Amino acid sequence: MLPIREYLQTETRRQFFGKAALGLGGAALATLTPPALSANESLQNTGESGNGMLKSPHSSPNAKRAIYLFMSGAPSQLDLFDYKPKMKDWFDQDLPESIRRGQRLTTMTSGQNRFPIAPSIYKFKKYDNGGDGAWISELLPHHSTMVSDLAIVKTVHTEAINHDPAITYICTGDQLPGKPSLGAWLSYGLGSENEDLPAFVVMNATWTGRKSAQALYNRLWGAGFLPSQHQGVLLRSSGDPILFLSNPDGVVPQTRQQMLAALNQLNRKNYQEVGDPEIHARISQYEMAFRMQTSVPELTDFSKEPPYILDMYGPDVHKPGTFAYCCLMARRLAERGVRFTQIFHRGWDQHGNVTGDLPNQARDVDQPATALVQDLKQRGMLDDTLVVWGGEFGRTIYCQGGLSRTNYGRDHHPKCYTVWMAGAGIQPGIVHGETDDFSYNILRDPVHIHQLNATILSQLGVDHRRLSVKFQGLDHRLTGVEEAKVIGDILA
Amino acid sequence: MNIYCCPSVKNPPKTGLSVRLAGLCFTLLTVINLTSSAQEENKVADQEAYATQELLKAKCFDCHGVDRQKSGLRLDDRPSALKGGNSGTPGIAPGKPLDSAIVHRFTLPSDDEKTMPPKDRPRLTAEESLQIIHWIHRGAVWPSYKGFEEENSEKEIESVATIPAESGAETGLVNFSKRVLPIFQKNCISCHGPDEQAKGLRLDSVADIMDANADGLLLVAGKADESELFRRISLPEDDQEIMPPSDFGSPLSTADQELIKQWINEGANFDQQDLETSNEADTIVVASPVAAEDLAKLTQIGALAAPIAQDTNLIQVDFSQISSQIGDEQLTLLQPFKEQLHWLDIGGTKITDDGLAKLAVFPNLVRLHLENTSIGDNGLQHLQTLTRLTYLNIFNTQVSDVGLEHLKPLEKLDQIYLWKTQVTEAVAEKLMADRPNLAVNLGWEYELKKKLLVHLEEPVNKAVGLSQSGAINAIVNLVSKDNLEVAKKLATSAIQKQTTLEEKARASDEVYAKLSALFDDDSCCAKAHQEGNKCAHDCCKKALADGLVCLKCNPGAKDKQTDLEEKARASDEVYAKLSALFDDGSCCAKAHQEGNKCAHDCCKKALTDGLVCLKCNPGAKDKQTN
């Protein structure tokens, strides 16, 4: 492009944003004033700026909000949901080549001489889900009481075989870093229902399984090339729930407010000169942080939760940062209109010692996840809250490392794994898809992770094909370039 | 009986018709006046119905029947005939011959191009014309039209009069129910119909098709080429994905494919009548968008108020994030959205039973959140007019069994949330049985109890409160491992523990009730009691825990309390004496040894009378008399 053209284009853009800045600056000042002082002004403006880019969803939404329970590290579908009774007779036999069919393996097992089959040592039972029934392992006793509320999808698959690309892929729709995350897209598209809290909140829960767990990165809840106010806000479990949110000692709220108002004026001035939309993001983040100084302490105060609700989530709920604590927090966030909450629970990467670590991991999430779904349900919120449980890929039927009758390890397996969804127009009490006897290949109804994301968006009333942003010459969308169909069969 | 005369004819379809018909009308009037009783009229109507049907069959059905529908008009079934053809005028308007297109057409001069039957076919005789007019006037009774008897013919006439002209009729758009649906019914419904729903897809009714198209992929309005349905029917014959599948039938004819393509390209619309007969709540069509300034009044106070989606004028209003500032008066802000209000959330607000009266006027409201409010049974009676309501959340309200009675007219209701209400399990379970399509939610504990009951039988039957005792986790674990015996024991002991706790709470409530009578007027304790609380002073709390009234705050209670204490002491003394009379090994003696009093009704009664129960302690008779 001719430099002069580029300059002219920037100039136009700058003028455009310059105009917008006047509006936003006004909003900024007004919203910084606590609602008690000038409720009318502040809300008048937030009504405008709080909406997402779409203003309203493309189509009538089933879900007003979603909660994603992300099991980072890849839980073993073979020991939790995907019951393979025939494998008992295959103990320590080699995985047939007719099943593997040259499938790419990770370097952690590609050098193994053999691929001996490790049947799950856990007992499975078939539970009544109002339909054909659902098999659940003894590691998830609480899940077994809510199968009639779940759509268990056994045939989710992905292309990535290592954690970093795989988790980036499912969280942002691309294996390469830099794309906006699911929550950021939702925040961008639909905006927030509560001006005092971010539209996208992230929590990292503690775990009790394998201690050396896969790392998480900010980009998993990042905004990519979307304006950065759409990135997930991390709610910490110890100390201040949100870093740097409290006023420094000796600074009273009024001082803080005056300071921020002046800062916003400077930012606005700067914005008119440079026209960088990131300054917008900064202004709105300062505003949000100021409002969160009052909304967050109220949010994180569990003292008014009755004992029987705390008990429902299990004893861990009293320990900040546990998965149970995060699940209760997720319900409270949902009640307060937060669009998307994502809880990352790490430690599911059982390359070895499945029987030592997996029960602990399962115990961490079993009761709290069940309590979350059931608590939402009894409050009438499951009807418009989508809950998703799942990781970035599955695990292999063959053993990684030493195999014994009592212990084994499992490598990464991208070709099929289990995810469950509940609420918000998802058909309850079904099991979708079927894998082969080895839980290696999909026999029926494959669901690509793009389809999973397309379905999540669709339940929130967003047509994944029509929520896109131009970046580097391409209309980017969460579900990629190729067509990804909503999983019609699991919709109620 | 003089209901039919020329001056009452309004808006005849074409000027001149009334003049042409004047002669006929006069004759007709005479005929009607001759009929003497209603009974006879019915009889005549029956005969007429068959006779007229034969006549229409002979003269009209060739071109306006099951095989052909020239100009979109079909006369061989009543709804189609009433609706009329492409002209938009009802083919037959029951009770109103002058408004019926067919009467208009067969009374035209024989050389008129539009006359019916067409010029090349035999015209109707005067008698035949009169027969049809007479029959229409009497309500156009259809021999094969079931249920006509039940329908009040006057009502019928009225409703027909208000049926709007079919949209797009003038432009000749493909009519779904007449042209597309028959193709589906012929080719698709053996696998995608009532008997079988391959891939969960049904194509036999508008509601099902709209359901199947929830994701907008099956039918992309205006884009046949992007619609899955059209893609599948237009694939090459040897393609694996073609529909109907090759082993089930031949591909659709090119004509049928083209018709479906045209219908999708025209927007894949279902016509008005299909929408009306569809029982899907989300097919409500609201023509007018809301005024932005009316919405702004709501957003200004901090409510969420916005169209539900881009493709609808229906709106949602949510006060839940500013609930503490909302009461009955703010509901008046909803008035401009009479038609458009679709979802409403006033959970947690200060609305009252009376305030709910303001909600009675929103016919298109389908979701209503009233949870965590103080509304009760009286409030629910205002909801009876919300016949489209499908979701009602009244958890944590004062609603009781009585209130549920008011919800009977809400036939579309498919979810109701009753956790933490006064509604009893028995009544809720009856509701579940009576209305299988209504999901009644009584809370997680209730549901869990029902699930565990399958495994544990009796012990958990009373298990509400299990989670309070902290045992639920262990019980669920044991059940999942088939360790039912231990689970049962645990459940039983948990229930006992819970029962004891409850009894203690009840007992302390009873003590408090007695003590509260002793409070001095206007004391801190009395004030708190009036407000339904207990006094929070440390001194008062301590005294109450000891079963006493705080004498520092209620000095006047001193004497009364002493009386009470003396009585209690006295009764203790009496019991001490009586206990000496118990038979060895009797129920009373056993209880006494454990430091309790016997819980049998007979024994308790005897003790309050200062006697020993002789039924249980026959040996005490002599001693007692002594």
Task: Describe, in short, the structure shown.
With 492 residues, chain A is α/β, with parallel strands linked by helices. Chain A is built from 12 helices and 17 strands. In chain A, strands 1, 4, 5, 6, 7, 8, 11, 12 and 15 form a 9-stranded mixed sheet that branches. Chain A has a two-stranded antiparallel ribbon with strand order 2-3. In chain A, strands 9-10 form a two-stranded antiparallel ribbon.
Helices and strands in order:
The complex is a heterodimer of chains A (492) and B (626).
Chain A: H1 3-32, H2 35-49, E1 65-71, H3 77-80, H4 97-100, E2 124-127, E3 134-137, E4 150-157, H5 163-172, H6 182-190, E5 200-205, E6 233-234, H7 253-274, H8 277-299, H9 307-313, H10 323-335, E7 340-345, H11 354-378, E8 385-390, E9 394-399, E10 410-413, E11 417-422, E12 430-432, E13 434-435, E14 442-444, E15 447-448, H12 449-459, E16 469-471, E17 474-476
Parallel strand pairs in A: 1-7, 1-8, 4-12, 4-15, 5-6, 5-7
Antiparallel strand pairs in A: 2-3, 4-11, 8-11, 9-10, 13-14, 16-17
Helix pairs in contact in A: 1-2, 1-7, 1-8, 7-8, 10-11
Chain B: H1 17-34, H2 38-59, H3 78-83, H4 101-106, H5 126-137, H6 153-162, H7 176-187, H8 206-212, H9 228-233, H10 254-265, H11 272-277, H12 292-300, E1 304-307, E2 315-318, E3 341-345, E4 367-369, H13 377-380, E5 391-393, H14 401-405, E6 415-417, H15 425-434, E7 439-441, H16 444-456, H17 458-461, H18 472-480, H19 484-516, H20 524-530, H21 538-545, H22 557-579, H23 587-593, H24 601-608, H25 620-625
Parallel strand pairs in B: 2-3, 3-4, 4-5, 5-6, 6-7
Antiparallel strand pairs in B: 1-2
Helix pairs in contact in B: 2-5, 7-10, 18-19
